[in-house]
Structure prediction request, 200 residues.
Amino acid sequence: MFITFEGPEGSGKTTLIGKLAQYLRAQGRDVVVTREPGAGPFGSEIRRLLLESGDLPPTSELFLFLADRACHVAQIVRPALERGAIVLCDRYTDSTLAYQGYGRGFDRELLRRLNAMATKELVPTMTFLLDLPPAEGLARLTRKDRLDAETMDFHERVRAGFLTEADRAPHRFVIVDATRCAEVVFDEVALRLAQLVDED
Prediction:
């Protein structure tokens, strides 16, 4: 089972995923927690280039994300799924559509094709979109990387992109109000996830 978590900066994805992994492991489940970019040695190098480097051309940014994703899926996600693990992933293909498509202006149909190539068409079982206004999310951050430092207009486009993609695939997306406290968000997501696991 492949579960992804999306949302604007500061939406609480990482904290939520950690708590969900604990919750599922306490039930005896095999859980793999991973992220994009940055999983594995190759991914950690790409993450440094993407988030800590200075000026980076948008096309270079796009292809670095795709290179990370292709390696991540082949080396981490698919092997975990094949052994029957539950994979909880912090960002995936929808982030490329939101940030590089809606945010940067790349052709979104082209991005869909590139994502399909990089992942060999691996689609999440479910995607939780933690939604909140960008200004609120950015205010939560204690430090900002290269993408965090983009203009508010950019972050507004990204948020709108996530919501548009959720509308395109309502069977896969669950939109979660991330303005609420972390405990309430966890309870809502854990309930949905428990239902999904029980059905599997």
User: Anything to note?
Assistant: The mean pLDDT is 91. The two ends are 8 Å apart (CA to CA).
